[in-house]
Amino acid sequence: LINYVALLGASYEEGKDIYSLKELEERFSLDKLNKAPAIFDYKKLEWYNGQYIRMKSSAELAKLCLPWAIEASLFGADGAQPTEQQLALFTAAMPLIKERLVFLNEAPAKIAYLFSEPPLPAAEEFIPKKADITRAIELLRLGKSFTETLANAADDEQAEQFIKEQAEQHGVKLGDLMMPLRVAVTGARVSPPLFGSLRLLGAQLSLQRIECALEFLERSL
Asked: In this model, does residue 12 exceed pLDDT 80?
């Protein structure tokens, strides 16, 4: 907030947006103030908030988001405190959402699927464009066959390289292959990164969710 307000109606030679308090003190001068009235842009302020969120370490961000997670009952009913294991998972999930957060209170909803199994959406959510439910089932079965490898990959790069090779080998589009897998694991088409989610959930839990999704889709035929 200080950074944003300090630049309302003022500009400095560097032309950058992020300054420390010390830098602002060193650069401030009445000569650098614009005569025209400043415009308070809430979208710009939100952008600043997001930038400062991204500057936090996972531990720092988890500490800031924790009160919101407790209030949202992410760790159990009636605002339960996290167990040591839950807190470790919460902290490990921060890199998955850091780039997507604008406000701290958005964090619990974005990673709720890591702490409890999300409800399955409508069958249509699993179906890629120009496909049908039968094709979605085929793609999800294919994705299931190498979910363990993805969940055990060392990092996103390794997982991405592997799934690209599988998509090419089986003659399917990468996006079509990943969509039903993402929905089965996270409960939504739009979610934090799939590969990181699989690693945090682990192969066993991920496979259980995929199997539940397959049973649901087969009943929908």
From this structure: no
